[in-house]
Design brief:
Radius of gyration: 13 Å
Helix content: 25-40%
Number of helices: 1
Distance between the termini: 16 Å
Largest sheet: 5 strands, antiparallel
Order of helices and strands: HEEEEE
Length: 85
C-alpha cells in the first residue's frame, strides 16, 4: 500500500467515524463533506465543493465519492482552490 492509499484510507476512516458519531448523538444522518485539518474533524458542509476561502490550505473535504485538498492561499485568507486527492 502506498502513501496515497494509506492517506485515503485514514481520511475515510476519520470521516466515517464522525458521521457515525453524529448519528448516534443527534439521531439524524448528515450529508455532504466532512472537513478534516491536521487529522481532526473541523466541521462538515453540504456545499460541494466547499468554498475554498472558508478553509485553511491543507484541509481535506471527504465525501462518499471523493476527497479534495484545499491548496494555495494562506491561513488568514483561506485556500484558493480544491484539488482531487
Amino acid at each position: 500500500m502506498d502513501y496515497r492509499e494509506l492517506l485515503v484510507k485514514e481520511l475515510n476512516s476519520i470521516a466515517k467515524h464522525y458521521v457515525e458519531h453524529w448519528f448516534e448523538q443527534q439521531g439524524e444522518r448528515i450529508y455532504g463533506e466532512v472537513l478534516i485539518f491536521e487529522g481532526r474533524v473541523t466541521g462538515w458542509t453540504i456545499d460541494e465543493p466547499p468554498f475554498p476561502y472558508e478553509w485553511r490550505p491543507g484541509t481535506y473535504a471527504v465525501s462518499k465519492d471523493q476527497i479534495l485538498l484545499a491548496v494555495g492561499g494562506n491561513d488568514a485568507d483561506g485556500a484558493e482552490d480544491w484539488i482531487t486527492v
